[in-house]
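Question (not urgent): is this output format expected?
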Amino acid sequence: MIASSRLAADRSFVLEAVRRNSSALWNADPSLKADRQFVLDAVRQNPWALKYAYDKWKADREIVMEAVKISFSSLRNAAHSLKADREFVWQVVTIQGMALEHVDASLRGDPDLVYSAVTQNGWALRFAAASLQADRTIVLQAVRQTVWALQYTANSLKEDRQFMLEAVRICGFSLRFAARPIKADREVVLEAVRRDASLLRYAEASLMADRDLVLEAVTQYGAALLIADPLLIRDRHFVRMAVMKNGLALEYAPAFLSSDTEIVLEAVKSSGWAVLQCRSPEMKADPYLQRLATRAGLPARARAFFHYARELRESHLKAKVDLWLTTHNSGELLHWVDATHLCYKRRKCRTHGH
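Got this back:
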């Protein structure tokens, strides 16, 4: 509450009070509350002040628009005549799509208006009429803004194979919202996996045993082996094919296969770093695998790792050690950083001959 009538009539004081607390407008001097420019300035300071304005200002297009520009929720305090005015609402949703929540129910079923709202903010689909949440064009437009709009989509579309295929092509994560029969559709899942291999986790279990599909996922995302059917990842031939696609998948292979000489060899050929995933200390120290890893890429880093491993002489060295290295073009290693220790160690060494 504003302390005195003198302060309640002080324009600058009241505006500052409104900025801090919208209800201050309620206690302002009547002369200020009747001043259109003052009320306009007040809602620019705090859009929630519209709630305490005179009814005639709640029906003023400019004042309400200024409030909505700052906060779409302030539209709830506007006069119903404005919330039911199609032309005004159109202007509002083009800048604040979520304002659709507060417009007249009849306008939430207007296809053009709702399309405009979801184009501005895909989340606005939540407030569209049920009939429009089943409209392919509107829903796909919402998905282009945010894939999470699919949680407000009619089940009939989530069960529509062609629709979900289009949605997945826009954003692979759409697979998460598909009906179960669609998650068992190989073509739809493959489209999703090609965009993000980790999305294989949303496929039906029946597809986890599909060799080609899992291999497609493993090519991008080695951890996809963890999602695959247990019988598949224990299949030696399949795991060999997987590490040929992505050597780093060796980390996620069963222990008895990640120590298989032939499989490790294929993994290292694919990615020099794969040798870090070997479960066997003997393999990590194998000179041939070291040379192969060096040729496979990142030579300075690979040589630095083997130098580090031999120096520590730890047979129980962790399967994965992350190294951040700074090197010269000459191959000289300035320092290594061991990320498995709390205190980073640094030392100068030369990698020639390792």
